[in-house]
Every structure is written in structure tokens, then in C-alpha cells.
Amino acid sequence: MQNLTVLGTGVLGSQIIFQSAYEGKTVVAYDISDEILAKLPERWEYLKPLYLRDLPDATPEKLDAAVGGSARPPILPTPWVTRTSS
Predict the structure, then answer these.
(1) 22 touches 51 (CB < 8 A)
(2) Residue 74 has what DSSP assignment?
(3) If you classify domain 3-82 with CATH, what class do you get?
(4) Average pLDDT by consecutive 10-residue portion of the chain (86 residues)?
(5) Contacts 24+ apart (CB under 8 A), 4-7
(6) In whole angstroms, what is the distance from residue 6 CA to residue 53 CA?
(7) Cα–Cα separations (whole angstroms), residue 83 to 3, 56, 66, 70, 72
(8) Distance of alpha carbon 1 from alpha carbon 10, whole angstroms
């Protein structure tokens, strides 16, 4: 499975998105409002130090790459799309 769609970007959804992107998956995330979607980078910043602490293979570069490919697609108004080059 290379492509995932996550419905909801709260505590659990944001972690699923981050972990999937960290593992090189393409993720499309939906939530009920742009305000909620806008909180994703803040949630990911919270997760980065936890990954560095808990995962032996985690590096700042790998974590940045997991969310560095994030971009809103021009056609879809609400989803947040995360793509990685891994």
C-alpha cells in the first residue's frame, strides 16, 4: 500500500499521517475545516522530538522530508496532501 487517505486530522489522524509519510507513503488527509487542517504542522512539530527520542533510525532530515513535501493541491480545496520522495 503506497497511497493512504485519512479522514480526520486530530490526535490519532495526525499521527497516522505523520507515520505514513515518515515511511514514504503518499497521504491525503481530510477534515471538516481548513482551520483544523492548518494545525497539522504544529502537531507534526510536536511529534518530531518524540521520533528522534524513540526511533533509532530517525534523523531531523528524515522527519523534515516526511512533511516537507506537504502541499495543498490546487483542485481540492480541503485536503492536505503529503508526498515524500522516499
Answers:
(1) yes
(2) S
(3) alpha beta
(4) 88 91 87 85 92 94 79 41 48
(5) 4/28, 5/29, 5/30, 6/30, 7/31
(6) 26
(7) 9, 23, 8, 6, 11
(8) 23
Phi, psi of 79, deg, nearest 5: -70, 155
What span, in angstroms and rounded, lies between the C-alpha atoms of 41 and 14?
Answer: 9
Query: What ranges do the domains of the chain cover?
Result: 3-82
Q: Which three cell numbers stand for residue 66?
A: 516526511
By C-alpha distance, which of 83, 52, 61, 54 is closest to 70? Answer: 83
The DSSP code sequence of 9-28 is -SHHHHHHHHHHHHTT-EEE
Could you give the 3-state DSSP secondary structure of residue 71? Answer: strand
Strands (E), the chain: 3-7, 26-30, 80-82
User: What is the pTM (predicted TM-score) of this model?
Assistant: 0.75
CA dist 70 and 11 (Å) reads 18
